[in-house]
Structure prediction request, 522 residues.
Amino acid sequence: MQQNQQQYFWLLLGLSVLLLFPGLGKTPLWIYDEVRNAECAREMYERGDWVVPTFNGGLRTLKPPLHYYFMFGGFKIFGITEWGARFFSAVFGVLTILITYFFVKKYSSQNQALITSLILLASSHFLFEFRMSVPDPYLIFLNTASVFTAFLFFNPDSYRKKKNYWLWLCAITMGLGTLAKGPVAIALPGAAILIWLIWEKKVKEIFSWKILVAGAIMFAVALPWYLLVDSETNGEWTKGFFLQHNFGRFSETMEGHGGPFIIVPIIVLLGLLPASIFIGESFRSFKIRFRDPFLKLAFSVVAMFVVFYSISSTKLPNYAMPCYAFVAILLGNFVNKAWEENKARLYPFIILLIINLALPIAAYFGIKNEVNTTGMENLAALLLLLTIAAIIALYFIVKKNFRKAAVSSFAFYSLFHVLLFNWLYPSIYKQNPMSKTIDIVKKYDHVIAYHIFHPSYTYYLPERVPVFKNLDSLKMFMQKNKAAIITRKYYAEELKSIGLKEKASVHDLFEGNTTVIYVNPE
Prediction:
């Protein structure tokens, strides 16, 4: 048994490293969230500032600083590069896989723990998020750790006394989570744990001095930075973060990221393919299956996150991701049972085949219809690996062999992810306007912007990019300086009217805008 435990650990560690680290530096920082976070960390790092976040020299109130601090470490090791910005996100991906494995093994079984972890490693969405320079990898790990440690405190082994240090660890991870993304790191896991305690008829356990101590520890971890940044910015950061980016995002749709209630559960199910095809099977015999306290906890977490973000006005694909490990626990419970019996129903595999037939078709037309990638649509053929995976899995399940269906699916998905992150994704995303024009822009001593520009340029330029809002002041500046102006096509006529020359025009990749570069006439 001990040998199997070691083998499973090294298997998961090896697979996690293989799927999360290679290719981290092959893709430029183009996605808005990635580059804004990375550039903010870069500016703080260059100033030696651990308190005030800035982007392009202006106050950034969108996120607390924990992920910036880890990027500091990445910059120290790898320099101010894509690797530096993304490295510790991948590290936290590995930690999330391992912590999930160890806790599921403790409260279920070793095989179920392995299966649950492999479900996460087969998820394109999970792997993609932990390869990005954003705060979510840190929040996901810390939320997962908060829930697991709370469970250890409130549900100790019957032959052991309750260990207070699990509650203190829960408080620390919640405090750190608050430094990763704000009060949601306390509110949502805390609400899920409360729902579970009510379900388990243990709610009286929260009325204890130990909870007060845990609260004090949590605030001791999180509060000092919030007080410092409030003081340093005269309350501007506090106002922007809590009013606009917390209450505002919940009450109003921001940046066009809205949608109906059903969109969040759909994102979760698509995000955890291929295993999510068993979600219906995972809830069969609900009353019997959910007598298990650990499954009750997992269900409580999933319900809390999905419902909360479904009623939130702003909806983004990453919002509900802190519940992914717990969805995987529910799915893993069923898959483990099917593995032991070596059988499962046919309909989930038919659903997977339909989805995996549609994916390469959608990718083909998506790549073809994007101006910058027209002619590259044959790259979509890579997604046929997923179609083949679904066909083979369906064949094996018809032959009454669930194990071969599961193993073949994971093998094909893993091969797909290696090729996706090391070849397909970099090939596509190198067609973005920044990558195509940065060498032109760098030839000029002055790089400025007019009204609005894509934030990716800031990370690849040595200086901040001044933004002009007034045409007359821009004209005066250009009369005295030779400069490159980054803007959007919407402002082309204005810039032509003051005699500037268009140097480059590139459609923003998979977006509705076009980036243009203007320079002084020769």
